[in-house]
Amino acid sequence: MAPIVLFVYNRPLLTQKVVEALSRNEEAKCSDLFIFSDAAKNDDKSENVKQVRNYIKTIRGFKSITIKEQTQNQGLAKSIIDGVTEVVNKFGKIIVLEDDIETSPYFLKFMNDALNFYENEKRVWNVTAYQFPVDTSKLPNAFFSYFSSCWSWGTWKDRWAHFDKNPDKYISQMSKKDIHRFDYYGTNEMYSQIVMNKTGQLNTWAIFWYVVQFVNNGLALFPSKSLVNNIGMDCSGTHCAKTDMFNNNIDFEKTVFDFSAIPIEENKIYIKIVCNYFRKYKTHKTILENIKKILKKVIKLCFQK
Q1: Structural domain total, the chain
Q2: Above 80 in pLDDT, residue 297?
Q3: Looking at the whole model, is its pTM more than 0.70?
Q4: Cβ-based neighbours of 291, under 8 Å, separated by 6 or more
Q5: Which residue, among 72, 106, 58, has the nearest Cα to 253 in the 3D structure?
Q6: 210 in any annotated domain
Q7: Which of 92, 114, 129, 178 is within CB 3.0–4.6 Å of 227 for a Cys-Cys bond?
């Protein structure tokens, strides 16, 4: 079993929900769980951090539990980069979760089976149990994409060794054509996150895991039905805004995945489905923003009369 690494901070209720769901996986009792708890950034966060730390000391149901409590605030990016590097270098492969990723009872089986099957397939860089809320009913029960997901993921030591949080490197390396494809063919603003990390507007890690996979022509495995759901898109996280765009239903049915039958190549139909989803959402969002602007102008005019 690959070790599970869970990153927690100041959301005690979400953390408990995530751990309880994870412990319902049959493979939990055979899995080593590593929990990295970041320290409070300021006094306002201290009480919730304390509650999280009190809770994680009560966790049972795993083969072993190792807790690392930071004494100073590291921030999400540094916490994940350092924690993943430490564990994957020791064990060779890894399953990564954050404190807002609720899992199916079959999550660990899917992740471990995939990590074992593709370990020596160097074109595969990432395994995720997340699926966008799109219609995949006409697709196989798992397939590959050039884009990735950080909402539950797994990888191997040799792939993670390429990770480099270096905005200048990728800005100079990517052509306009690359950027267009990297941005889900212009439907999702991904490349701008690299630029914002360079300018200091952002300090994130996931975009660099995506881009290193992208420039190395790596593939990510996705299930057709999501085995996880992000339950933290409520403004409680460090780098999230309130949205229902990514809400989905966790698949609680036990599925048999025949990885040997899956072509190790981009599923272009799936890529088109996801890009169309982002395109429609982007258009809908623009329309709503325009309506809000018009309403503000109308209200302002009414009060001026």
Answers
A1: 1
A2: no
A3: yes
A4: none
A5: 106
A6: yes
A7: 129
